[in-house]
Amino acid sequence: MNGLRNPWLLGVTLVALSTCQPGGFTAFAQGPGQRLPLPPIPIKGDTTHTLSRHFIPASAAQKTPDARGFIQRWLMLEPVKKDIARNNIFTDNYLRTTFSADNFSSDYATVPRSGETVKMGTQELRWYALDSKAFNVNLYHFTYALNKPKYGILVWLVTVIDCPEEMQNVRMAAGCNSGSMWWLNGQEALLLSGDRDMIADNGTSARLTLKKGRNIIRGAVINGPGMANFCVRFLDEKGTPVKNFRIGSE
Fold it and tell me: Per the count of CB atoms within 10 A, which of 1, 27, 146, 238 is most buried?
């Protein structure tokens, strides 16, 4: 697994340590996955605030997951600025309340287009369709490149995957820093609460079904002090990364 520990064993551990919530799965404990190196602050040599250092604009052509099944293409909304002094406030209730109040759309079938803007409170925020050059998506790099707030932020994410056939009994596996919530086709799939480090497969969902054809993933990552980044992939019943789908941004 290229240095990542067996995600299926991690999922079993999380099942034992976690409690199912209506419509989704909440992971309370961090698993023993690989801790990833964090970029320096500020980014050395980057004084131009350019997206091209860590991202590639998404093309019209669909792409596949990377060699380990991670999804690198995402529509990312400029950060919603939040007054967050510390990350230990990210309880299940806090996350659900905040994501509901600061949601860009209650229609979970909505897929924004790159360049579109949305009003969130007093902020006018823009969507970007980007491919991460790494397996994870570093939101510090994203916000730094845009010269936007890097700390005390909420970032909304959307991606579309196209499956050649129905895939049953797969699990969504995600890692983030610090709190996040993930939906598949409008249904809550995974909630990662608490003050977490970005560890691959830090939480796994209950068994899910990816439909034949179009599936919409929505995510929200929130962080106060420190870095904000995430990674997402799907695992089959044997813990093997699912890679038989294509990723688009519309």
Answer: 27
CATH of the domain at 80: 2.60.120
- How many domains in the chain? 1
Residue 177 lies in a domain: yes
Rounded Cα gap, residues 175 and 202, in angstroms: 5
Compute the average pLDDT of residues 12-32.
Answer: 40
Residue type for position 166: E
Cα–Cα nearest to 239, from 28, 11, 27: 11
Phi, psi of 13 (to 5 degrees): -60, -45
Instruction: Give the structural domain span for 111.
Output: 7-28+50-248
The set of residues, in sequence order, having a beta carbon less than 8 Å from that of 243 and lying 6+ positions away, is 64, 65, 69
143 burial via Cβ count (<10 Å: 0-12, 13-18, 19+):
buried
Q: pTM for the whole thing? A: 0.84
Tell me whether residue 185 is exposed, middle or buried, using C-beta atoms within 10 angstroms of its C-beta: 0 to 12, 13 to 18, 19 or more: middle
- Residues forming a β-bridge with 124: 119
Residue 45 lies in a domain: no
Tell me the C-alpha distance between 139 and 29, whole Å.
Answer: 23
- The predicted-structure confidence for 144-165, as pLDDT tens digits, reads as follows 999 999 999 999 999 999 999 9
3-class DSSP assignment, residue 9? helix
Q: For residue 198, is it within any domain?
A: yes
